Amino acid sequence: MPQLNRGMGLVALVIVLSAGAAQSEQSTLKSAKGTTRPTKANPDALVLQDFKHRVEQYVELHKKAAKKSPPLKETTDTAKIKAAQQVLADTIQSARTGARRGDIFTPAVSRKFKQLMYPELKGPDARETKKVIKDDAPSPAVVPLKVNTHYPEAAPLSTVPPNLLERLPQLPPQVDYRIVGKALLLRDVDANLIVDYIPNAIQ
Amino acid sequence: MQRLFVSIFVLALTITPFAEGITLKLPMKEGSLRFAIIGDTGTGDSHQRDVARQLTASRAQFPFQFVLMMGDNMYGADNPSDFVKKFEEPYKPLLDAGVKFYAALGNHDDPSQRFYKPFNMSGEKYYTFKPKAGVRIFALDSNYMDQKQLDWLEKELTASGSDWKICFFHHPLYSSGETHGSNDVLREQLEPRFVKHGVNVVFTGHEHFYERIKPQKGVAYFIAGNSAKLRRGNINESDLKEKGFDQGYTFMLIEIAGDELYFQTISDKATTIDSGIVHRATTPDGKPAVTATPAARK
User: Fold this and answer.
1) How far is B122 from chain A (nearest CA, A)?
2) Which residue in A136, A161, A190 is closest to B185 by CB distance?
3) Terminus-to-terminus CA distance in chain B, angstroms?
4) Rounded distance, CA B102 to CA B100, Å?
5) ipTM value of the model?
6) For each successive 10 residues of chain B (298 residues), what is the average pLDDT?
7) Pick from B116, B147, B181: CB nearest A81
8) Which residues make beta-bridge pairs with B7?
9) Per the CB < 8 Å rule, is B110 touching A153?
């Protein structure tokens, strides 16, 4: 057992030294105690991890709001569905009064998303992909792009081409991606709110 | 190699007079499954009501059990009064008679429609049900075909065994429409799964006309997106088209008996636009088909 510990210590030392040697290519992460330590990490993965974390934080907020709202469940009474959606939306809006564009789609996340979508928007399937987007996506004149506001209920919801969805991080069921003009939106499905958006994402 | 042969042919069937002057061309076989198809209905205008009247009238001769809705169930606002005007009133006689409606979501539909009980979506944006032994129906959300839905579809299709496999959703994979046309990127995702698991028939809407596509890779495709909206003259000449109608509003009646699916497409003027049979022939061992070869006959 002591031999094993010594062996593991040696391996750890080699890792730390290697990490130090390649520090220029690495990102740093804060440890649990707040100290920074070098670590081998793919910068792209970190950006996506950050996005996932921000989405999770939003979903937590959504879940808390949902607990304070009437349950959204099957009913013949559409007024109940509308009322439940409205309370949910109001609660989330109140909790996010200071919300701004970029809270979830940070500049780094936005850049990464554009990179991820690039092959589908510039590659051999670009024409077909853009045709599907153009076919359904409403313009910003119909859906004003403003964070933490309602997606207009009478406006159509764009179809998001499946090849784009395939490239983007999967989302929890509370939110989805939508396209308005050239912007990619993160939308709260049941509250029908624009959570955040990337302008000029579709190019 | 298990094979499924699908053939579609127009056939003169038993002729039965219809309530409002339509001639029923469906065989009304004992024990058959009967349902109707409507698409892009949610306008609340006179065209929706005219089609709804014919649909209701047809039930006197052809007592269908349920109706599949191809999406765009609610154009514009979807307040409680809209649900009344655009769904409950036009189809009241059918709803009162216990006919069930099963909806798919279109690009004009808020996903919260899944909570509206008369749409029978069980709170889900995509779902499946088995209306009768040997028939499995899948409602898909073509607005948002993410990996989660594709995985679900793969699992459900695998589990459906040798049943008739019928999918319905909003956006057509094949279309001769000038306005929208075929959705190639959606087709790339869905068609391989349809072929692999032997999906027999696909119903869609979105295009505001009726079109029967020539069978593609063994799958029969229908577009029925003109049950309230119409894009007159919108069908292009194309190699895909077997039959098209862009001069009026229609709905479809479907009957499944054994290995035959009979269809009749009827206009709001009580005229039969199209009719025929999708024939499914399984291998002698009766196992689920994994490939399909259409043989069109007229």
Assistant:
1) 7
2) A161
3) 27
4) 7
5) 0.84
6) 41 44 91 98 97 96 97 94 97 98 96 97 97 97 96 96 94 96 95 96 98 96 98 96 97 97 96 96 49 36
7) B116
8) B279
9) yes
